[in-house]
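Ticket 4471: requesting a sanity check on a complex prediction with magnesium ion. Repro inputs:
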Amino acid sequence: MTQSSFPAVRSVESFIISIPRETPYLGPLAPGERINERGYLIRHGNRSIYPNSDMSVLVKVTADDGTVGWGETYGIVAPNAVTSIIDDVLGPVIVGRDPRDVVVIQEDLYDLMRVRGFFGGYYVDSIAGVDIALWDLFGKLLGQPVVKLLGGQRSAALPVYVSGLPRATLEQRVQLAREFQALGFDAFKYAAAVSQEGIVNEMRALREGLGPDVKLMVDLHWKFTAQEAIQLIDQLAPFRPYFVEAPCQPEDIEGQAHVGAATKVPLALGEEWRTVFEVRPRMERRAMSIIQPEMGHTGISQFMQIARMANAFHVKVIPHASIGIGIFQAASLHAAAALPNCPMHEYQHSVFDRNLQFVTTSMRCEAGVFHLPQGPGLGIEPHPSVWQYLRKKEA
Ligand code: MG
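Returned structure tokens:
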């Protein structure tokens, strides 16, 4: 096929999906927490807002020859902000572009709003969704899995850690972890935002309940000042955490670096960062030993740049996994499988397992391991059943 005849982008569409949940993300509501009229709840433990549904934004890029690429990005709160940016700004700009130029296109889209200060947040989330769809399209047009286009494939499967123990009491959370342990999982992370019986108590209970060999982690949910975090991590250290996540507020670069320098426990940071430009100052200050890029924020092009930069700093990559139907999860597995410095991937079981019915894919998480999807592109498509949860866009 000559260069001039390679299919170009014909159209870009975005969709909001909202799949109801029985139990909210992170677990049952605590006393005083409630779901508001827009379907959101605020976790008092970390003062952050979450949807009461699995809400996501899908991106469909169609080529001249009818081939379709699928992407997904963050839509968990105010998804119309994301779809407006895609529909009004990004989509029309890339119609006619060659999907083989996916990294160049990502850079071009980033430049469009750079001088106005839009180099993060919803704008970059929107680019991420388009970027993932273009990589899927590129792979499908070549008949190759995306991982093969990212420099090469190191593995067909990745170890996981079980993320979140969404039960009401500590006893129930330990029991849930034991059930996963019996299925072959050996790494567990709990969430400080819903650790009602105490963060140290919870790690002690998990260590006693699961034995000496499992990996234990805690997400501190940006709750502490640097000094508070150092004191807390000292109390956690006897239970040998594999990492402690997000001790200080996201803007507090010096605080993160201070904690990193003061503790022997590895720190994991970075689910909220979107580009190498946000990551670089933290890397330079040695604020972490593990970075947790979130594919729904970064897209594949930035994810790979962040991960390669992390490798240059001898920092491990353990990707974040958030609320979605599975498309950016698949993209994250493709990217992670190309890396030399990725020992495991987050497994957001309460989202992933339930939503697997809404995608067509061979991707699985079983016995402590994520299996990459097979097939060209990302190896995942929305299942027709997901469209019953299509949410109307608001002007
Ligand atoms: Mg986290």
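Notes from triage: The longest helix spans residues 121-142. Leaving this open until the requester confirms.
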